[in-house]
Amino acid sequence: MRLRNLNMTRDYADDLKLFRTRQSKASIVAVLALALLLPVLLPDDFWLSVLVYAGIFAIGAIGLNLLSGYTGQVSLGHAFFMACGAYTTMMLGTRHELPLPVWLLASAVVGGLVGGIVGPFALRLRGNYLAVISLGLVFLGQHVFENWESLTGGPGGNGSTAPLSLGFLDFNALAVGGRAYTRNQSFFWLVWALVFLSLLIAKNIVRSRPGRAMQAIRDRDVAAQVIGVSLGRYKVGAFVVSSALAAMAGALFATYQQFIAPDSFNLFLSIQFVFMIIVGGIGTVFGSVIGALFAGLLPALVSKYGGSIPFIEQQPGAGGLTVFQVNQIAFGVLIILFLILEPRGLAAVWLRIKAYFRAWPFSY
Amino acid sequence: MTNFLQLCFAGVAIGALYALVALGFVVIYKATGVINFAQGGLVLLGCYLTYNIHQTWGVPFYLSILLAMVACALFGAAIERFVLRWMVGQPTFAVLMLTIGLLSIIDPAVTAVWGFDRLNLGDPWGIEVLKSGEVVFAVKDIWTIVLAAVVLLAFFLFFRYSSMGVAMRATAFDQEAAIAQGISARRVFALSWAIAGAVATLAGVMLAAGAGGVRPDIQYIALIAFPAIILGGLDSPAGAVVGGIIIGLTQTLTAGYQPEYAPWLGNGFNGVMPYLVMIVILMVRPYGLFGTPEVRRV
């Protein structure tokens, strides 16, 4: 019997495959089909918008995972890069009404460029210092955006209505084959298509030479340098890709929300991204998506069913914890619990379950 | 000239505050190699505890500072014992993310208990001032400067002469060798977190004293201590104080002169000036003014 279905690596080519088994191919097809059908099966605006936000965050989280999970550089600056993308979109999309592909790509390029400028600091500093520097970036960014009133509308914020049509597809209200879809449904397809694109990009980076170099830097940078990995090239490279993805997420965030204020890109947003990659799984690409889904669903559940949890306040000012405080505490507690109990996150839990059923009913 | 002197005094006073916060960071970094993002949370907790003990329970002010210091020290040691102990041997970036998680818990927990309102700490200094010529000195600021100097001196004496201080230095230098010499690394770690908690309380009290009031955004003020320690060097107590004072001076001088001479930098530029200074310093001297350059060997 050929053990084709077992995850067996026989040569390097096997190790580099995008889909290593037939099941993984099949499951990708199944997930894609689910993503295509979900907005039709679940036309509920509340849950669709939760999933759209989760998708937007997933794109950013994939970027942060490339930087922190694969290259070992902790960054708290993700909110800043998201803001870069959001305001590029406001400039090009809202003000100059350039089409969707232009502002989306331009946002990614601007994010990548800013990342490339900040990147050399990452080169000079080792992991922990970068976290502090990027913390400064968040505050500097907020100051700049609050004072650049002509573009951002100052601390009060500004409307953001970039054009959303792509050829005959209008993602504000998709109409295909005589059927009209809502804005949430259309946005769901747009965002999750971009999530899959980002996944593909990230997966291809990590399974090839740059990915191996990045992991070598994470595991032991001196040793990586000795075996010929250029620290500068790959650290800055990881920074550029990660910021570009964050900026793209920011562009979608601004456009979906139709309004942004500079203080939405605060330190807590950056902490949320750290949360996503820890809970999802540090150093796994699809873990970022699981983490983003988790980070999106948790506040949604709290706000929807918070009424039946006793210590959450029912009306503002009535005492008890606000929904925002509950989320913040839950995020903090889960970061700590996951780091202590399951440092490789939900992705590892999933892999364990899969491994268990692969050989089922035998336990090994 | 009077204006300049006034700004300089204010800068040194704010700098002393940053130095107090920064000393808490340094003691943890020195002993355990952890950059503690939750230090701002400890500062916040310290000043609210003092408020609670003094104003709600009616304990005399100085005694309540002492009690809050003890409580916050115990809290710090508890964090080390019940949370960070599990992370021994994990990569430092994981530990750093864990302290970010802690920060994310302490802040909403404190506002959930004490609310968002600005509370009066009830300190004896209030808004009293001393005058020397044209320059006005707030009594609270003088206390802050004296306190920062005393704590720095205490740190110096502790690390130089006490056996526990020497043990801490040894552990920071080489954990395994220290353990081989019979030093309990666990006690060293717990003690460093306890010291950080106690110093954080002092910093919190001085931040909340006078016109400031006890308020949740004290933890963001505490974050400005980051530029101070980066400037001074992460592992140097003296550097923390010098860095704090430089940051304080740049901040007040910016606040004093930037609106007049460089208005295009925007309102509230003094709030982000420290971060700018930090980024420039890191470009020139990555290990700060007094930090130990890291030697990397294969």
Can you give keywords for this protein?
heterodimer; A: 364 residues; mainly alpha; two-stranded antiparallel sheet; 70% helix; globular; B: 298 residues; 2 strands
Question: How does this structure look, described?
Answer:
The complex is a heterodimer of chains A (364) and B (298). Chain A has 364 residues and is mostly helical. Chain A has 15 helices and six strands. In chain A, the strands form three sheets. Chain A has a two-stranded antiparallel ribbon. A two-stranded antiparallel ribbon of chain A has the order 2-3. A two-stranded antiparallel sheet of chain A has the order 4-5. Chain B has 298 residues and is an all-alpha fold. Helices cover 70% and strands 3% of the residues of chain B. Chain B is built from twelve helices and two strands, in the order ααααββαααααααα. Chain B has helices spanning 2-32, 39-56, 61-82, 92-114, 139-161, 163-173, 175-180, 185-208, 218-223, 225-232, 237-261, 273-284; strands spanning 129-132, 135-138. In chain B, α2 (39-56) runs parallel beside α4 (92-114), α3 crosses α8 and α5 (139-161) crosses α6. The longest helix of chain B has 31 residues, at 2-32. Chain B is globular. Chain B starts with a helix and ends in a 14-residue tail after the last helix. Classes of the chains: A mainly alpha (364), B mainly alpha (298). At the A-B interface, α6, α10, α12 and α14 of A face α4, α10 and α12 of B.
Structural class of chain A comes to mainly alpha
Largest interface pair: A-B, 49 and 46 residues
Mean pLDDT of chain B: 86
Number of helices of chain B: 12
How many beta-strand segments of chain A?
6
Could you give a short account of the major beta sheet of chain A? 2 strands, antiparallel
Distance between the termini of chain A: 19 Å
Question: How is this structure best summarized?
Answer:
The complex is a heterodimer of chains A (364) and B (298). Chain A is mainly alpha-helical and 364 residues long.
